[in-house]
Amino acid sequence: MTTKRRAAALAALAALVLVACGGPGTGGANSGVLGGIHNPSDTRGGTLRYANSGDWDSLDPADTYYGYSWNFARLYGRALVMFKPAPGAQGATLVPDLAESLGRSSDDAKSWTYTLRPGVKFDDGTPVTSKDVKYAVERSLDKTTFPNGPTYFNDVLDLQGYTSPYADPDPDKLGLKAIETPDDRTIVFHLRKPFSGFDYLAQIPATMPVPRAKDTGSKYKEHVVSTGPYLFQTNELGKRFTMVRNPQWDPATDPNRHPLPDTITVDLNVNADDIDNRLLAGDLDVAIEGSGVGPSAQGRILGDQGLRASTDSALVARLWYTAINPDVAPLDNIHCRKAVLYAADRVGYQRAYGGGTGGEIATNLLPPVIPGAQRFDLYPSPKHLGDIAKAKDELAQCGQPNGFTTGISYRAERPKEKATAEALQQSLARAGIKLEIKPYPLADYLKLYAGKPDYAKANNLGLIVYGWGADWPDGYGFLAQIVDSRVIRSTGGNSNLGIKDPAIDQMLDQALVTADTAAREQIWLGIDRKVMEDAFVLPGVWAKGLLYRPPNLTNVFISDGFQMYDYLTLGTTRR
Amino acid sequence: MGAYVVRRMIAAVILLLIVTAATFVVFFLVPRLAGATPEDLASRYVGRTASPAVIHQIAVKLGFTDPIWVQYGRFVKGLVLGADYSTGPTTVHCPAPCFGYSFLTQNPVLPDLLDRLPVTMSLAAGGAAIWLVAGVSTGVISALRRGSVFDRAAMGVALAGVSLPIFFTGLLALAIFSYWLGITAPGGSYVPIQENPLRWAYSLLLPWITLAFLYAAAYARLTRAGMLDTMGEDFIRTARAKGLPERTVVLKHGLRSALTPILTIFGLDLGLLLGGAILTESTYSLPGIGKYSVDAVVNNDLPKVLGVVLVGSIFIIAANLVVDLLYAVVDPRVRT
Question: What is the distance between the alpha carbons of residues B261 and B219, in angstroms, rounded to a whole number?
Fold first, then answer.
């Protein structure tokens, strides 16, 4: 397994090397090649300027669910564990943060114990205890007050009916039985069912301690109490906020963080094109969403050698794919599904996402940045252009030698998905499979249309254009919501668009009780292979983002943990 | 005059109720006719792994399970009497007029709006001053020198101004003046006037000019056409025959008469702009009402949308009222 990881690391490094080759001759690019870090520096000071084209769902650690937000939250909060601030594959490994070590599980993986580091304080000087962590997790369970955050703790903890500390009769509001705090430094989580990957949950910002005395519920995001190296100096919701060094943060308690800038500013709701322009003009340091520059700036950057040298192409844990819906005849027949997989022109799919800049041609599910992921291709064709002879052969076995007609849905607001549907319409027609293109509004795509099984079936949506990103780079984080047949709800809102195989469900359950990481990764791989064997998914593109790195930015690298620049380590030469 | 204003105010309140009710209907009734349940609506305001139970809780909390008239009644009641909202550990009172709380961010809407209003007002006022002066004077000169090089050039530029969208001229202006030449402020650098008037003007200069370019073009063409019409009238000939100086003929007799339609349009334009200069604010990342409304609509955030609709309607109604009163000043003929 380690060799595979190393291979992934090497691949990531190679990507950096390729980008760095034409880099500016300051020596920074060269060391970037060696350590995977551009402009390495330990010089402190200066102001680092971020901008966001939208707004946070919330700055409250209990109520946030964006990758960039989890990346950034580590500047003002300390979860029990965290993704290591390190380049490439290293960045996808978990290291203890507020805790002294990773979680210690019971034999059945149903209870998990963490011991807190001594000496950690809130920004008002109050010491952090395990009760503050428990309270933070408790409040994150209250989805009426904090609707945006993930529900992993609601799902795995043995709640016994507990809903919220705000409805808790216990005078200390610590009545949740599923979390024990035998002393001020120990915290024990009791789960409903075994969950071998619990450390991934312990890195969610919901475990960042919250002092009960300062908790104002849905207004807490206006005054988040910091445990990290920065605290909020000003916070104008929806507009901007500034952060300065937190004097109560003690580096002796924190081996992971080496904060460089003195001040951090974040502008919110900034025009996306303007963000790109400001980045290129040196008027801004980081586009915080980490999803890469927009199409117009991309054209400008790729056409300019100098600018191009200052970019990183981040392979993200996201797959753009088309689900093949087995509810819709004749796709209930595996041979008809395989015919689709053989007939599809994958190069056309990639072109729909902007060619090589948009991502790599995917041949299976798990994106390569996920530890343990492997590339394999069960439906090979020359140059990925499709194999019409094989497709026709499968069609014959399916009893549809002359092809068939089915619908393909996509999200109307997404031009790339439209291009995908059109490209597939063309390439599948070569084998006699005719597609009727059906756009649906993005906001209700899963709730009312493609993700609602009876609607999809009644409207003949045989192919469903979609995409999925992992909450964290791990097989569970990527697969659980899209391959488990038991998460399919007849009421709609599904992200599993028709993968129904009891063998896959069983493998998922088995993975959750497998403590050994390498063995677990083998199971994720097995699921990936099974989905492809069942021909439930036409993989399209493993997404990439083109990140631009202004020259004054120091200590820049892409971590596989967040698949964007690691915000904990960034510095600036601008004073 | 007093009775007239009062009558207009009562009509305005009724209009506001109709406008907000229509917004409600579009938001709730249309999706429901399309088959959406309260839970479908609520699922827009939860994280992506929310369970059906959680989605139901949110639907109840946001009041989606009540009939639409109950929800509308609650909104109007909040406006008149205020409302109470739970933040989790405590309940806060939102005093009247309470515009409600955002479905998505749970922030109260009214403070947000009041906070953003000065930005939009600054933008609209500065832009309006520039386009009115530039547009009208260009129009007058063009009309007086019909067919001259100035006329043709000005009308050509005006055509471009009317045709080019702000997200094009705005981004182009930013690229040239802010990032290339570095003489104007970059996007998103708004400074409130009470903080530093000079920086305020500096940060708004480019948005003003971009906005004014679009409107001035239309006003120049309008003024030119109006002036050409008026200058051919009999009363102008009479004025000239009386031996009045040309200045007086043009400004007092000609322009004043040509100004009436301009004033009408100006009232509407200004009212609309105060309800949010959507494209300009988005292009320059100005945190005004327009940017706010775009974010609200994109996120299906009804309380915010309602707030913007209310504020926008109030401005349009007020601007029209002012224009109607100003008619009397500009055009002596309508005085009764």
Answer: 10
Q: Beta-carbon neighbour count of residue A304 at 10 Å? A: 12
Are B40 and A492 an interchain contact pair (Cβ–Cβ within 8 Å)? yes
Please tell me what DSSP assigns to residue A450: T
Structure tokens at A280: 């290129």
The pLDDT, as a whole number, for residue B1 is 64
Token duo for residue A37: 């870090």
A516 interfacial to chain B (CB closer than 8 Å)? no
Sheet holding A186-190, edge to edge: A104-105, A111-115, A186-190, A179-183
In angstroms, the CA A380 to CA A385 distance is 9
Closest-CA distance, A345 to chain B, in angstroms, reads: 31
ipTM surpasses cut 0.95: no
Instruction: Say if residue A9's pLDDT is above 70.
Output: no
CA A348, A354, A357, A360 dihedral sign is negative
Percent of chain A with pLDDT over 90: 69
**From CA A380, how far away is CA B107, in angstroms rounded?**
53
| Nearest residue to A484 (alpha-carbon basis) of A531, A452, A539 | A531
Q: Which of B44, B283, B285, B286 has the most A C-beta neighbours within 10 Å, making it the best mutation to test the interface with A?
A: B285
Q: Does B36 touch chain A (CB under 8 A)?
A: yes
- Could you tell me if A239 and A269 are in contact, meaning their C-beta atoms sit under 8 angstroms apart? yes
Interchain contact, A271 vs B48, CB within 8 Å? no
Query: CA-CA distance, A418 to A408, in Å (whole number)?
Result: 10
Interface test with B, best of A239, A494, A496 (most B CBs within 10 A): A239
Please indicate whether, in this complex, the C-beta atoms of B187 and A271 are within 8 angstroms of each other.
yes
Name, in order, each residue with C-beta under 8 angstroms of A14's C-beta and a sequence gap of 6 or more: none
**Residue with token string 């359950």:** A509
> How many angstroms separate the CA atoms of A376 and A363, rounded?
6
Q: Is the pTM of this model over 0.80?
A: yes
* Burial (Cβ within 10 Å: 0-12, 13-18, ≥19) of residue A123: buried
With a cut of 70, say whether residue A32 has pLDDT above it.
no
CA distance to A183, A224, A473, B220, B255, per residue, from B248 (Å): 91, 66, 77, 21, 10
**Residue B106 forms contact with A (CB below 8 Å):** yes
